Amino acid sequence: MELAALSAAGDRPAFGELVRRHGSSVRGLLRRMGAEPSLADDLAQDAFLAAFERIAEFRGEGTFVGWVRRIAARLYIRRWRREGLTDQAEGDLEEVTGGEAIAASRIDLDEALKSLSPSERMCVSLCYGAGMSHAEAAEALNAPLGTVKSHVKRGLDKLRLRLAPPAGSSDGRREHG
Amino acid sequence: MADPDFEQSLVKMFAEAPSLPDPEGFARLVEARLDRGWNLRQALIWSMGLAGGVIGFSQVFPTRVLAQMGAASEESRRVLDQGMTSLSNLQGSLDTLPLGGEVVWMAAALGVIALAFAITRAVEEF
Fold first, then answer.
1. Which of A28, B27, B81, B115 minimizes the number of CB atoms within 10 Å of its CB?
2. Domain count of chain B?
3. pLDDT exceeding 90 applies to what percent of chain A?
4. Could B26 and A45 be called an inter-chain contact, meaning their C-beta atoms sit closer than 8 Å?
């Protein structure tokens, strides 16, 4: 928050430090949403520049990185919708998701997300990566709330099969919708 | 079926930043783009200031400054005319007086001084 406050006062080295600290988080979210690495990096840069322009709007509600991740997510949604990626490769992914038997061992999130359709991946990433509620995701995607909820549900089902159950994580629950 | 524990663990997994190549290079790129944007903005402000100055000058120059210059040149001309008239009168007087060559040279020197004064006045007015 201090660095964000300094940045809001025009301290550009402070903002540079924020970029150093949170760059990978934002880039990572965009890749997890399905962006190619080069596109993810470009959009992450755009997100940080937009954040610097609008940093006066950040009032410390939530974390700075969470705020930038939301900006980045919205930038990617715009690109995603413009390029019509919503139904891309759905058929190919069905084959991947058909192999549910491989869920025995834990694989990492990035690999597990590849088993989701683009729409499922997008909805899950928005709700669990960018911290949006189902309603916010529906609004950002300009999609019906029910559609988003069903994408999230199907995505979670697939991820649950792919990811081993976590060991003892039960505090601080979130609600979506 | 909702599974809050799983959802919570998913949030944590998403929150973990992956290890990506060249984080320092990424930060430098962002800073370079910030600098570029800042320089562009400065150039824009500077050029807008220049344009404003030119417009302001072009509005003022033809009216006030030119009027002042005209008044100044009019004043200078009047002073010069006075000097020349004085010289003519002096020459006429010299013709009627029995004066030597040194007086003529002195009068010429006075004329030069008057001319210098007129030029100096004109420069000051401009």
1. B81
2. 1
3. 56
4. yes
Q: Residues of B at the A interface (Cβ-Cβ below 8 Å)?
A: 3-15, 17-20, 23-24, 26-27, 29-31, 33-34, 37
Give me the total of CB pairs closer than 8 Å, taking one residue from chain A and one from chain B.
94
Where does residue B36 fall: left (phi above 0), alpha (psi -120 to 50 degrees), or beta otherwise?
Answer: alpha
Name the minimum distance, in Å, from the CA of B12 to any CA of chain A.
Answer: 9
**Chain A, window 96-115: residues with a beta carbon less than 8 angstroms from a chain B beta carbon:** 109-110
- Write down all domains in chain A, each with its CATH number in brackets: 2-82 (1.10.1740.10), 90-162 (1.10.10.10)
Range of the domain at B89: 22-125
* Count of beta carbons in the 10 Å neighbourhood of residue A123: 29
Which residues in A lie closer than 8 A to residue B6 (C-beta atoms)? 156, 160, 163, 165-166
Quote the pTM value. 0.63
Residue B63 maps to a domain: yes
Query: Does ipTM top 0.85?
Result: no
pLDDT tens digits along A151-171: 999 999 999 988 865 555 444
Contact A122, A34 (CB under 8 A): yes
Contacts of A79 (CB under 8 A, 6+ apart): A35, A39, A43
Contact assessment for residue B18 and residue A108, using Cβ atoms and an 8 Å cutoff = no
Section A29-44 average pLDDT: 94
Q: Model confidence at A105, in pLDDT bands (50, 70, 90)? A: very low
